[in-house]
Each structure stands twice: as C-alpha cells, then as structure tokens.
Design goal:
Layout (H helix, E strand, L loop, with lengths): L1 H24 L3 E5 L6 H17 L2 E4 L7 H13 L4 E4 L8 H9 L4 E4 L20 E5 L1 H15 L4 E7 L5 H17 L3 E3 L3 E2 L4 H14 L3 E6 L2 H13 L7 E5 L5 H6 L5 E5 L1 H16 L7 E4 L1 E5 L6 H4 L6
Helix pairs in contact: 2-10, 3-4, 5-6, 7-8
Bound molecules: alpha-D-tagatopyranose.
C-alpha cells in the first residue's frame, strides 16, 4: 500500500514537473493581417513582427489582400479564422465594416489585437459599445501626426495661403484622425491658412496626382498639400512635379517609403513623417504572446514618429526609419 502511495506521489511530482515544460513547448501561431500586402508600411510591420516571433518561438502567418479595402480584406480574415490561429493581429480597413467579421474571431475564442487602425472608437475593453472586444490597439498617435503635419506645412508656406489634404477615403481610423489633427491645428493656430476641400483618392497614387493638378488648375494660388498616407503623398508629390510646381507647392508627406529620400533631396517633399511600423509589429506579437501565456497586456500602446527633412535625412539614425520594400 505504502509503495503504491509513494508511486502515486511520485507520479504527481513527475506530472507537476512535466506539465509546465509542455505548456512552454506549445508553439503558438499568430496571424498578422495587414491593410494590404504591397505597401512598405505593412512590409516593415511584418519584419518587426517576425523579429518578435523569432525571439519567442512563435509561428507568424502573414496574409492579406492586394488592396486596402474591406471587400477584399474580409474574405482573407474569414480564411484566417477557419485555420484557428492562437491570436489575430489585424489592421482593419474600415472602422465599422470590420466589426462583425472580427466578432466572428472573438466568438470563436481567438484573441484579436488591432494594429495601425482600429474598429469602433478604438477604445477597447470598456464594456461599452459593440466594438470594444479587441484586447489592445497598437499604433501611432494619428491625431498628433496630423498636427505635426499641419505645423510642418504651415512653416514651409510662411503661415499663409491655400492648402488641402490628399486622403484615402472616409472610414479609415488612421487617415481620418490625421485629417482631424491637421484641421484642428490649422484652425486653432494658423488663421492665415485656408484648408480647401479634402480630395479622396482610394489609395491610388495616380488619382492623387490628377487631383493635385485639378485642384491647382482651380486654385493657381495653391501653396501646399498634406498627403495623409504613403500613396496619397507620393501621388500628390508626383502631381506637383507634373504641374511644374516643385518647391512652389509644398508637400508634407505622411509615411516614409525609400523613394521619399529623392523627393526630399530634390525639394519636392519638404517633410516626411515616418511612422515606426516595425515597432507596431514587434509589440503586436509580444502583446499577443503575453496574453496567450497568461500575462495581462496594455489596452493601448502608442508608437513613435521620426520627422525627416533635407537637413537630417542623411543621418543613419533618421534614415533607419525608412520603410522596407
Ligand atoms: O499610413 C499607412 C497606415 O498607417 C494607414 O493606415 C494606411 O496607409 C498606410 O499603410 C500607408 O500606405
């Protein structure tokens, strides 16, 4: 009897020793769904996410649509949910249209963290509203980014004249907030500046370029444009160049693809506001892993900006924030 009891005790001890080891051996799979796959911003985010995944022994799956559109993103999300990853990191392409599709993941017990963009109000885990179920929101402070852009453009144009915002489309949390911050700063502190009607380009740089030329044709006294994301900014800059207005119509660009360097050096773009997408990806994976291993995580993580201009773009501490291709 004693021997049996001793053996049982031993078995329990062995189990206690083995169980934690087994738990640690579980290899988690974390899915990262970008706004679109062919964008240096999300390519750089993936690199940061992969670095964290490698450090933690996590399998990272990167799956997205070729354009920034809920109609193409939702089927990708459905396919990811069907594979039952341990967690989903996603940049939702619309504040409202991704709520129900993401709730399916939540209802299936898959933790959701949003990166870059948010759903609902972006304030999660409050018990209020229909879209507060994601665990965390990891992103730039986009209202602040818009304010920074406004100050940079105001400085470039001597604080007076007509400008406009080249933007993607309404309903995207990031670009909506950048426009909001830009207009708020202009209205509060730059009375000499008139902000014309926003031009929406559907994330199509060619459309943004034609719009620049059309706005300039209607307003020959146009002095500046704020490109609220990578494609809006590149397109607006191309439009300025095609209109022969390099240096006369000032461009402030959100985002920092490698091609921005030439545009800054030739004076086509005055200032580029680089986000830190690798940081967003890294902390996205770390947060998901922390949650999966029983840690509590912050409901929001704010990542930084690097402001690039002609004076600092050659500095490696600045240029390291250019996006990967
Ligand atoms: O500006 C980024 C991202 O923050 C935004 O949500 C969508 O556009 C980009 O991916 C740049 O193309």
């Amino acid at each position: 009897k004693k021997i049996v009891a001793a053996l049982a005790a031993l078995a329990i001890c062995a189990a206690a020793l083995v169980t934690p080891a087994l738990a640690q051996d579980k290899k988690f799979t974390i899915a990262l769904i970008p706004g679109l796959t062919t964008d240096g911003f999300y390519i750089t985010m993936r690199k940061g996410a992969q670095a964290a995944a490698d450090a933690l022994g996590v399998t990272l799956v990167f799956q997205g649509a070729p354009d920034f559109n809920p109609v193409t993103q939702v089927p990708v999300l459905d396919a990811v949910i069907a594979k039952k990853p341990d967690a989903i990191l996603i940049a939702p392409t619309d504040k409202v249209q991704l709520v129900e599709p993401l709730r399916k993941a939540h209802d299936a017990g898959i933790p959701v963290i949003t990166v870059d963009t948010f759903i609902g109000s972006g304030v999660y885990q409050t018990g209020a509203g229909e879209a507060d179920f994601p665990l965390s929101y990891i992103a730039s402070d986009n209202v602040l980014g818009g304010e920074i852009a406004a100050r940079a453009l105001a400085k470039a144009i001597g604080d007076k004249g007509k400008v406009y915002v080249s933007n993607v489309k309404p309903g995207i949390s990031t670009t909506d907030q950048r426009e909001e911050g830009f207009k708020k700063e202009m209205a509060a502190n730059h009375p000499g500046i008139t902000v014309l009607e926003t031009q929406f380009n559907d994330n199509d740089a060619n459309k943004a370029a034609s719009q620049l030329q059309a706005v300039f044709a209607r307003n020959p006294d146009l002095v500046g444009v704020f490109g609220a994301n990578l494609f809006s900014a590149l397109g607006a800059a191309n439009g300025v160049q095609q209109a022969g207005q390099t240096g006369t119509v000032k461009v402030v660009a959100f985002d920092a693809p490698t091609s921005i360097v030439d545009n800054i050096n030739t004076g086509l773009v005055d200032v580029a506001i680089a986000q830190h997408p690798a940081e967003i990806g890294y902390f996205g994976v770390v947060s998901a892993y922390a949650h999966l291993t029983g840690q509590s995580i912050p409901v929001a993580i704010g990542t930084g900006f690097t402001i690039m201009d002609k004076a600092n773009i050659a500095d490696p501490n600045i240029s390291k924030y250019l996006y990967s291709e």
